[in-house]
Amino acid sequence: MFTFAFTMVRHGETRYNKEKLLQGQGVDAPLSENGLRQAEAAGVYLRDVRFTNVFSSDLQRAKQTASIIVAHNNHCLGKKIVCDPKLRERSFGIAEGKPVKDMKDMAKAAGQQCPRFTPPGGETEEQVQSRVKDFMDSLCQQIVAQHASQCSQGKEGLETACNGLGGACGRSSSGTNLSDLHEAFADAVDGAEDLQVHVLVVSHGTYMRNVVKYFVEELQCTLPQSLKMSHVFSACPNTGMCRFRIAVDHSTGLSPCVDCVFINRNIQGSKVVKHE
Question: Which residues are designated catalytic?
Fold first, then answer.
């Protein structure tokens, strides 16, 4: 198995966020002054993380946030940010640009509840989930192709990650309890420092919630025991972040095992707000 760290960050605040208006894909607003400050704070917080790969939604608010984070990072000089439309926010169709309350009212009139409700012209949750899966499948295969050769070369730290987790990640064939995988990661500070490969993804609130849902419901992601399920699927704040460790089959890059380090960490303010 090949294991890498995966950190997901929501973009900074925009005027639409502040005014509680839906943006989706059709509204491509830049960061507000507060959003720029949030992105700066996120960059400072993440400055010592050795990101090897950086991906961003191709929408302006995400690209700005990713650029600021990379500019502050001590190890990302000249690092290319790969912009991928699969990381875009969910499309909310005719509700875009309108108050969030309007969409809730539309859902109520249709006898449905948010977020399952799909406004006319918008994406269904299933369509967003399909984008999530496509991105993660492509990412896992790409990371293995780029970096797995280091495992056989015995690089410090990575060799342990590759060899030490093989048994714990065999859930599909051996039925291993995934709590064993979480215990194997327990001694790592924030679950990343012992790995040679660390992927940064900058995206959007609803998209991130669908990533977490995919990890937990489809991939049976292990969670810290103290983490409440109400927090797992809650809305991520602007520049809030999630971190996971992902172990994939060395030969194919498929069938990942996922372990949660933290979800929706809010780094704004005088001290970090942790929910682990």
Answer: 11, 89
